[in-house]
Specification:
The chain is mainly β. It has no helices and eleven strands. Strands 2, 4, 5, 6, 9, 10 and 11 form a seven-stranded mixed beta sheet that branches. It has a four-stranded antiparallel beta sheet with strand order 1-3-8-7, with no helix packed on it. It starts with a strand and ends with a strand.
Length: 119
């Protein structure tokens, strides 16, 4: 069974930075596209950024130029570097990954990590 374990959330002042990490653990699977989503109180979960296994990236307009997604394929880990944070970035951040085991594919989610931007 594959687990996605996130880390790196916390409280930061506006203008500050945080780096989130998400590692896929388990065996017998391949990791394909990975991504980060977020959900603020009372709002729907929204895409933040995605990255393919080849390194192609996609960002929500609201984070372009401030957030950078990257991955280490050898470690099955995806990162989200968040700079120039704003109060509106406050949310629970979830990572996901498209996984395959033979011909069976599924999308797994992490448990979420809280990011709070406040002075």
């Amino acid at each position: 069974q594959v687990q996605l374990v996130e880390s790196g959330g916390g409280l930061v002042q506006p203008g500050g930075s945080l780096r989130l990490s998400c590692a896929a653990s388990g065996s017998g699977f391949s990791v394909h596209a990975m991504g980060w989503y977020r959900q603020a109180p009372g709002k729907q979960r929204e895409l933040v950024a995605t990255i393919t296994s080849g390194g192609n990236t996609n960002y929500a307009d609201s984070v372009k130029g401030r957030f950078t997604i990257s991955r280490d394929n050898a470690k099955n880990t995806v990162y989200l570097q968040m700079n120039s944070l704003k109060p509106e970035d406050t949310a629970v951040y979830y990572c996901n990954a498209d996984l395959s085991h033979g011909i069976v594919w599924n999308r797994s989610w992490g448990q979420g990590t809280q990011v709070t931007v406040s002075s």
